[in-house]
Amino acid sequence: xxxxxxxxxxxxxxxxxxxxxxxxxxxxxxxxxxxxxxxxxxxxxxxxxxxxxxxxxxxxxxxxxxxxxxxxxxxxxxxxxxxxxxxxxxxxxxxxxxxxxxxxxxxxxxxxxxxxxxxxxxxxxxxxxxxxxxxxxxxxxxxxxxxxxxxxxxxxxxxxxxxxxxxxxxxxxxxxxxxxxxxxxxxxxxxxxxxxxxxxxxxxxxxxxxx
Length: 211
Hints:
Layout lengths: L1 H6 L12 H12 L8 E7 L2 E3 L6 E3 L15 E2 H9 L5 E7 L6 E2 H9 L15 E6 L16 H13 L7 H6 L9 E4 L20
Parallel strand pairs: 1-5, 5-7
Antiparallel strand pairs: 2-3, 3-4, 6-8, 7-8
């Protein structure tokens, strides 16, 4: 994903094998960053997770997390991540949580709701308001069989969208979500924080960076 985005001229930052402290510090670093109006921020998490059947909460497992059964004190809850990310001053933020599912709405039911509406405003990016949207894996367990180069279904769907968008002048939010529709188990959709209802997230065309 990083390579695909970099090829298209987006600024990227990769953090590998981080602890819970590293993750929280990095997110808080972005809270203090300066962003221009209408700036976009894409946050991608890949790795192990934990899902609590009792609470419906998803957790991200970091390098220093300890496997203590149902104890989650060394994990970071998605709700905590969403709360911090919401405070990042970028106007439009999209998170792809490629670990395990958390509290949200199955993506297919979101499409059913949108198809019942007269207008397709949910598929567009508005210049006003804020975007705070997340797509979470629909699985309750991390897929241990994935090789490093194979990629997950979520990551491959995202890359497929970008490859297709190279052939079109305008790629919509709906086009991106369509790529996730055939994944089994169905990904979860969440709007969080200060999200303005009725808008999506479109990746603006970016010019390759000059050397």
